[in-house]
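User: Hey, quick favor. My workstation is busy. Could you predict this chain's structure for me?
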Amino acid sequence: MILTGIVILLIVICSYLFIQQPQFGGKPSPAELKRMQASPNYRKGQFQNLNYTPQLTADASLFKVIRKFFFGKDKKSVPPSVLPSHKTDLFNLDVNENIVVWFGHSSYYMQIDGKRILVDPVLSGHASPIKFTTKSFKGSDVYTTDDIPPIDFLLITHDHYDHLDYETTVKLRPKIKKVITGLGVGAHFKRWGYEEKMIIENDWNEEIKFEGLTFITTPARHFSGRSLKRNTSLWLSFLIVSTTKKIFVGGDSGYDSHFKAIGEKFAPIDLVILENGQYNQYWKFIHMMPFEVVQAAHDLGGRKLLPVHWGKFSLSLHAWDEPIRQVVNEAQSKGLIVLHPMIGETVRLDDNRTFNQWWNL
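Assistant: No problem, here it is.
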């Protein structure tokens, strides 16, 4: 009994010491916590979605999900060969061109009206606090932080490891002018060496104007957390409004009424960038199924759809290419234009170029 108690105590101590490592992020100050608690979206000690959002469906259990991850993954959950890519030189792009360059998963670079914007960059080769787990697909890591030019605005939709990466964020710090994110996320940046004046934390339905661009922080249906306690910071989406474009940055979100509400207020939207991947019927409330992605794009009044959250990590049970195949088929049946560039390929927002179905490996 004594030996068992000692072993348990050692495990607890080691676990505590492990989660003190910097990759787990920081905690808000008392003043920041007070602002968070004043949010209408903060109740019962944590942030809440607009509507009831269970992590799993009623027919699922944590044990069943874990068993599926070990024994139920699709045989094609990882690509059979190295992914094709095209490495655009971001430093030598004409900054006045309206451009998107996708880095795989939910990381991408944008130029809008002469400003450089970076969204949820994960360029370390893994999406986990432990380096040898959740590794990226071969061929998906053609970009590193060295390939990123100076950035006017870094947008972070939420603090999960596949959207906010410690190694990437630290290496990018000298290149970033402003960070815009949700309430509570700024604590991670401050622990990682970012100055407070660089960081803007917003609630849902708030608006910031900078140098000709308007950033509106809009709702999403998801959750947050980098340790055992969830929903200690706010997850969100963005609407970027310039003199020439409106672009919706969806982050992670299950399908819900917020898409229609945003569309009714801001449509038409030139480009909607929505998560399409890492879904499953067991957790359908926090990640959209492909047919819901197309419906969300329709609700938003999107003229074009760029599906992301696929092509780099296997975080679900489906085949690696299932999300793009299904969303393209669904969009074609609904008459929606889908952009599906290779990783690193330039998408010019002012033309109507089509892209090859490069995932047919």
